[in-house]
């Protein structure tokens, strides 16, 4: 009887340990440091969610290479290639407030085309905390007369003021090419792109794509080359005759004659 009880306890301890630490098929080692109970965890992160993350990156000896704790959280969309692949894997299935250690092997970290940072080509030792999850509420989709494809990926209820010519817009964006190649994102800079609508400050297709948006609204848009960079493109990132795929969010709308709060 006593042996049976001891075996059951050991089995439970082993199960709990496996539940808090594991290695993925890609060789990424994950350990939950702060676990959030099911009663408090309303949703878990999944591809397509926009996450706010705190991180600390260290080398094998424990020397801190970079950290944003005590600063603004880093914002990215999970599973969209906006971060290294190992981080997309390491942040999947997290609850808000959860903390993890994530060890990412070199082949899942910064490649030869990645940003020049200390630790490139080495195993990456991360401590991460998930601050927030945003999951969108989809709306309508349509094609404009000019050929811009628009899909409202998050609609805002009770909106009374919509973007129009002359408004100053604070926009967050992520840009991809048609084959899914990541080009650029304002989210990675933690500040919005600001421009005045219909004044030639952006490509014509962007003015069309933002028309009628509400603060907080998000859209996926596809802009044809004739409303973007045409036959010449914008080398080296954007080739000629490229269709531009944008994820957009309108963070703030400032209308002329109205005092900014």
From TrEMBL:
Keywords for this protein: Isomerase, Repeat, Rotamase, Signal
Domain PPIase FKBP-type positions: 48-134, 166-254
EC number: 5.2.1.8
Reactions catalysed, as given in the entry: [protein]-peptidylproline (omega=180) = [protein]-peptidylproline (omega=0)
Coiled coil: none
Tree of life domain: Eukaryota
Taxonomic classification: Eukaryota, Metazoa, Ecdysozoa, Nematoda, Chromadorea
Gene Ontology molecular function, alphabetical: peptidyl-prolyl cis-trans isomerase activity
Protein name: peptidylprolyl isomerase
